[in-house]
Amino acid sequence: MECKARFTTYETAELSLPRVIKSDGRRETFSDDKLRGGIVKALEKRPVEMERVEAAVNRIKRRVRESGEREIDSRRIGDLVMDELRALDQVAYVRFASVYRSFEDVRAFLEEIERLENELPPDLREQQLDLIPADEPKGKR
């Protein structure tokens, strides 16, 4: 009996992501789900569409992949997440930063909020809700 089937093979580029070096020195496989989960958790109950979240996840993955490194420090990924959250939503950025940066006290936390408000470009500022209402006097913070 003779086989008359036809088979086709395809080659694809393997776009692998580097392994992640955790703060305790452990190494683990890069996880899209973990990255997305951290961003979504920071954005919980915030008015940000999932399309924008997915775009942020893709930008982070592209930057990690383009680094060309075989391993990447988890702090570097955290910095990339903070960059994306800063543009997506100020409240989510502050939520993530409060855990990620482990602020020593309330003063350090307020300094980060003020720095964020001062550094945000005007076009992004218009898309954001205020962190602290404008009518609230500074002394009441």
What does this structure look like?
The protein is mostly helical. The protein has one domain (19-125). 51% of the residues lie in helices and 6% in strands. The protein contains six helices and three strands, in the order ββααβαααα. The protein has helices at residues 32-42, 50-66, 74-88, 90-100, 106-119, 122-125; strands at 19-21, 27-28, 71-73. A three-stranded mixed beta sheet has the order 2-1-3. A hairpin with a 5-residue loop joins strand 1 (19-21) and strand 2. Helix 1 packs across helix 4 (90-100), helix 2 (50-66) runs antiparallel to helix 3 (74-88) and helix 3 (74-88) packs antiparallel against helix 4 (90-100). The longest helix has 17 residues, at 50-66. It is elongated. The relative contact order is 0.12.
